[in-house]
Amino acid sequence: MGNPLLEKIELEMAVLVRRVTSITSKNKIGNLDRSAYLLMHELSVEGPSGVKTLAENLQLDTSTVSRQAASLEKKGYVSKIPDPTDRRAYFLQLTESGTSDFNEYKKARLDRFEILTEDWTDEERKQFGNLLKKFNQAISEK
Amino acid sequence: MGNPLLEKIELEMAVLVRRVTSITSKNKIGNLDRSAYLLMHELSVEGPSGVKTLAENLQLDTSTVSRQAASLEKKGYVSKIPDPTDRRAYFLQLTESGTSDFNEYKKARLDRFEILTEDWTDEERKQFGNLLKKFNQAISEK
DNA sequence: CGCATATAGTTGTATTATACAATAATGTAG
DNA sequence: CTACATTATTGTATAATACAACTATATGCG
């Protein structure tokens, strides 16, 4: 029974998440973890934003973002600019060192993906990226 | 600069892992978590195995597997059969209730993936499964 | 205007999944 | 038979998350 195409996706997805989780636990590249990376990515794409906006965009609880932001601030990667129109709120902004370490980390990640897919065709890379994105969108929406 | 194909994979992969992690935290389907699921999958495919073998096959630390096994045993999903040739070792074996709840959980997961990919072509599903597998193999090996 | 409610962010606490290190019990080889 | 290796467990730590409680501030209504 069952749809073998779905079964394959289902199993490989479980394996993938485990592998990546496992890597995160030990093989952390540099000073940045995946979650901080996504937060910084968001800041670098969207510009300075507050905890609430970030939490919405990243689909995380504000408490989670708040802690990540605190940790990044401690490392000097983001600074908190008070929102002049609302004294409860801040804008989180990447610092210079944040930006440069973010780029360095991104490069290290890309190198890793380069190696992982070194024997793939560009067509495969393209499909994989597209399908991952499509899948992520589905998860976000459904 | 950089390779846009790789950048897309890299980013979407980070997002994917977060989404799935997030789902695991709240939306747990039934009584089984992803990690227990993979362990039970392994047992159902490979038959009764010891902690060490499982850890090797799943590429996890033995301590991690040992705890998962203990938790599954507590739920009555696996039983420990002493290895007659080595009194340090056990075989973990799925119980009936383990098998049936595993199948039920698997079905729930498949339903979920069915929905997530409901507007995909079979060709896309096939490609996604293949590429995920290929990627997982790369991670395991490189 | 002032109180009630809403909102931004932080902090306390819990859960899940993992690793590494130390240990106990048992096996094995010289 | 002793020294070393191996199987599994347990202690401890880390990362990433959520929910709930709280603080401070904002807003809107009577």
Q: How would you name the CATH homologous superfamily of chain A?
A: Winged helix-like DNA-binding domain superfamily/Winged helix DNA-binding domain
**CATH T-level fold name of chain A:** Arc Repressor Mutant, subunit A
Instruction: Tally the beta strands of chain A.
Output: 2
Quaternary state reads homodimer
In round numbers, the mean pLDDT of chain A is 90
Give the biggest beta sheet of chain A: 2 strands, antiparallel
> What is the name of the CATH class of chain A?
Mainly Alpha
Q: Reading side by side through the largest sheet of chain A, how are the strands ordered?
A: 1-2
Low-confidence stretches of chain A: none
Q: Find the structural class of chain A using helix and strand composition.
A: mainly alpha
What order do the helices and strands of chain A follow?
HHHHEEHH
Helical amount among residues of chain A, as a percent range? 55-70%
Strand content of chain A: 5-15%
**Approximate shape of chain A:** globular
* CATH architecture name of chain A: Orthogonal Bundle
Distance between the termini of chain A: 25 Å
- Most extensive interface: A-B, 57 and 56 residues
Using only C-alpha atoms, the radius of gyration of chain A works out to: 18 Å
Work out the helix count of chain A: 6
Protein name (chains A, B): MarR family transcriptional regulator
Domain HTH marR-type (chains A, B): 6-137
GO molecular function (chains A, B): DNA binding; DNA-binding transcription factor activity
Organism (chains A, B): Fictibacillus phosphorivorans
